[in-house]
User: Which sequence fits this backbone?
C-alpha cells in the first residue's frame, strides 16, 4: 500500500515531525530520503530491501554508485539523495574534528574515522595530519589495498607530512572482516612509520583499527 494511504499517525514523515527522528526505524528514515517507492513497493519496503541487500544502513549509504545503479528502480535522483546524506554526515563530523584538539575529543575522532572506514569493502589507510597545537590540517587516503592487505610506504608518508608541515599524525585503517584487532603486520607497520617520521620530528599519536561498529586505539593499548 502506498504510504500516502497510511493513517497520518503512521506515516514516517509525519511521525518524525511529531516525535523526532529517533522514533523512526532505519528503513523509515531511508524511506524519507528516497521519498517515493517503485512499482508495487512503497518507499519503506524499498528501503528495507536495500538495507537487507547491503547488510546495514551504513553499508547502504557508503555503497558505490555502480553498486546502487545496478538495482532496478534506484535511479540517479535516489542515488544522489543517499550520497548527499552520507556526505553531510561526514562533513558534520569533520567540522567537529576541525573545531578543536582531536586528542581532547577522542569520541569525535572515533566517530569520524568509523564513518569514513567501517563500511568500506576494501582496506583503506588514512592519515590525519595535525599541527603543533593538534589541530587538523588535512585528512588523506594514503593507501587502498585488497580485502586482506594494503601497502603503505613510510617514505611517501614522510613526504605528505612535510608537504602539510605537520607536527603529528593519527593513522587509521579498516578491517573489512569486521574484526577491530591489530595484526602483527599492523603493529610492524606502525613502528616503521613512527621511526621514519621521527627522523623529521613528526610524532605518531595514535593508530586506529576500524571494524564493524568498533575502533581499536593503539595508544590506549600501549602499542605506541
Assistant:
Amino acid at each position: 500500500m502506498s504510504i500516502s494511504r497510511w493513517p497520518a499517525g503512521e506515516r514516517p514523515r509525519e511521525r518524525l515531525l511529531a516525535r523526532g527522528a529517533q522514533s523512526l526505524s532505519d528503513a523509515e528514515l531511508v524511506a524519507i530520503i528516497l521519498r517515493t517507492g517503485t512499482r508495487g513497493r512503497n518507499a519503506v519496503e524499498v528501503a528495507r530491501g536495500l538495507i537487507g541487500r547491503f547488510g546495514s544502513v551504513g553499508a547502504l549509504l557508503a555503497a558505490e554508485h555502480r553498486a546502487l545503479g545496478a538495482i532496478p528502480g534506484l535511479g540517479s535522483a535516489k542515488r544522489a539523495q543517499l550520497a548527499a546524506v552520507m556526505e553531510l554526515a561526514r562533513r558534520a563530523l569533520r567540522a567537529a574534528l576541525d573545531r578543536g584538539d582531536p586528542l581532547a575529543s577522542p569520541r569525535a575522532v572515533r566517530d569520524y574515522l568509523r564513518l569514513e572506514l567501517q563500511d568500506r569493502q576494501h582496506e583503506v589507510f588514512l592519515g590525519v595530519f595535525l599541527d603543533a597545537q593538534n589541530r587538523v590540517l588535512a585528512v588523506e587516503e594514503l593507501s587502498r589495498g585488497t580485502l586482506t592487505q594494503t601497502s603503505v610506504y613510510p617514505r611517501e608518508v614522510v613526504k605528505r607530512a612535510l608537504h602539510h608541515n605537520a607536527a603529528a599524525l593519527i593513522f587509521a585503517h579498516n578491517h573489512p572482516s569486521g574484526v577491530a584487532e591489530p595484526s602483527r603486520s599492523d603493529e610492524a607497520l606502525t613502528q616503521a612509520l613512527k621511526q621514519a617520521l621521527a627522523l623529521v620530528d613528526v610524532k605518531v599519536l595514535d593508530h586506529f583499527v576500524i571494524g564493524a561498529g568498533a575502533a581499536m586505539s593503539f595508544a590506549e593499548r600501549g602499542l605506541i
